[in-house]
Design goal:
Helices cover 25% and strands 24% of the residues. The chain contains 7 helices and 19 strands.
Length: 272
């Protein structure tokens, strides 16, 4: 395995194969060649998901197996799409199956492999776009499935023909069990999506930091207002969830009481 000079340091490979790929602060690199079949498959999944095609390998006999691993199951009915897009700086996207209609949260690259999988699972009814940075190929998926794209009005320039537009700063029920939570800070109209009491799709609002060992938000990637970001983080204590599924950064899963503790820890850290 190797990483070439086109790497944009998006973290995708390190999330999928942390024993193989390391970070320098400017790019990823192979810190250890895969030692067994499991590590090899994880590294090849990183190759497939890499938004810039920066990962290569001398042995490609299991690449088809890695392609077939996506969408990658995270929990019942929820999967990570893979095929991260360079248009969203390698942001993660997710597929959620639901009897009332399936959801795509932010967008991966448009690839037939994913489109056919979504088709087999009943298609896509809703495409929730957390903010302007991570729309990627949402319009292509919307056209394929006649899906309803949902985005905040303050982000609308990134998807001007979206079918549904969120206004204001109050949480909005989009469908039974699905609530859009405006979380301005990273961008002016950033929103998170709460699905039931299980999953918070947090976009670029919060994520798990492997280096800090806790939930985090970052002033350095706050394009609109850090003050508003801090206020938006504090809002999360009102909601119950077990998963944080971000666009960038590590995913996190805790029992509800521990997740509340982790959110309280985050609020304290960002408020200090």
């Amino acid at each position: 395995m190797f990483v070439d000079a086109t790497c944009i340091d998006c973290d995708t490979c390190r999330q999928l194969a942390p024993t193989v790929f390391g970070e320098t602060g400017e790019f990823s690199f192979v810190k250890l060649q895969p030692r067994d079949p499991a590590e090899q498959l994880a590294a090849l999944c990183a190759l497939v998901a890499c938004p810039t095609g920066s990962i290569g390998t001398a042995g490609k006999e299991r690449v088809a197996e890695a392609v077939a691993a996506f969408p990658m199951r995270l929990a019942d009915g929820v999967a990570y799409c893979g095929f991260n897009s360079p248009k969203s700086f390698g942001g993660n996207s997710y597929f959620l199956e639901h009897p009332g209609g399936n959801w795509l949260i932010d967008s991966p690259r448009y690839v037939e492999h994913l489109a056919r999988h979504f088709e087999r699972r009943g298609g896509v009814r809703y495409i929730f776009l957390t903010h302007r940075d991570d729309v990627a190929d949402a319009s292509k998926y919307a056209k394929r499935f006649r899906a309803e794209r949902i985005i905040h009005r303050l982000e609308l320039s990134a998807q001007p023909d979206a079918e549904r537009v969120i206004d204001g700063l109050a949480p909005v029920e989009l469908a039974p069990g699905f609530v859009a939570i405006p979380t301005p800070g990273h961008t002016r109209g950033h929103c998170a999506l709460l699905a039931g009491e299980g999953f918070l799709f947090s976009g670029d609002h919060i994520w798990w930091s492997r280096n800090r060992g806790r939930l985090t938000a970052s002033r350095s990637v706050c394009w609109y207002s850090w003050e508003r970001q801090v206020e938006s983080v504090a809002l999360l204590k009102q909601f119950r969830f077990e998963w944080v599924l971000p666009g960038h950064g590590e995913r996190a899963h805790f029992a509800p009481d521990e997740m509340r503790r982790q959110v309280a820890r985050l609020i304290a850290a960002t408020s200090s």
